[in-house]
Design brief:
Helix content: 40-55%
Radius of gyration: 18 Å
Oligomer: single chain
Mean pLDDT: 83
Number of domains: 2
Distance between the termini: 10 Å
Number of strands: 5
Low-confidence stretches: none
Number of helices: 3
Order of helices and strands: EEEEEHHH
Largest sheet: 5 strands, antiparallel
Shape: elongated
Length: 124
């Protein structure tokens, strides 16, 4: 099932697929490197690999991946953008409000991200 991770100890290695490509796409979650092979997302740690299947390969369909596999990122970005736009409308004549607008956008984005991630974990 997408989202479930399998832990593979490094001793069992070299299971690493020759065609897997190192990538920056995805959350590293403390991994030293991460790879993609089709819908597989492989994270490499010092002592193990964590492997899970994404519904959609972000290299093929980035928006589909955000919607189906990482909605927390999409919602966090939307919350930050919405708050930024609202702050800009409200404080457009006050330059001193730029910092507070950026701050509130960041907080709103973070809260949207964390909240969606919690909801997603309860649903899985």
């Amino acid at each position: 099932m997408p989202g479930d991770e399998i832990e593979v100890p490094k001793e069992i290695r070299e299971f690493m697929l020759e065609d897997a490509q190192e990538t920056i796409l995805g959350q590293k979650n403390g991994a030293t490197k991460q790879y993609r092979y089709g819908n597989l997302h492989i994270r490499e740690y010092s002592d193990k690999f964590l492997v899970h299947t994404d519904r959609i390969d972000p290299r093929q369909d980035p928006m589909g991946h955000l919607i189906h596999d990482a909605p927390e990122v999409l919602i966090g970005l939307a919350c930050a953008a919405f708050t930024g736009i609202q702050s800009a409308k409200k404080f457009h004549k006050k330059r001193s409000s730029l910092a507070s607008g950026i701050f509130f956008s960041a907080v709103s984005g973070y809260l949207g991200y964390v909240g969606t991630k919690k909801i997603k974990s309860y649903l899985e």
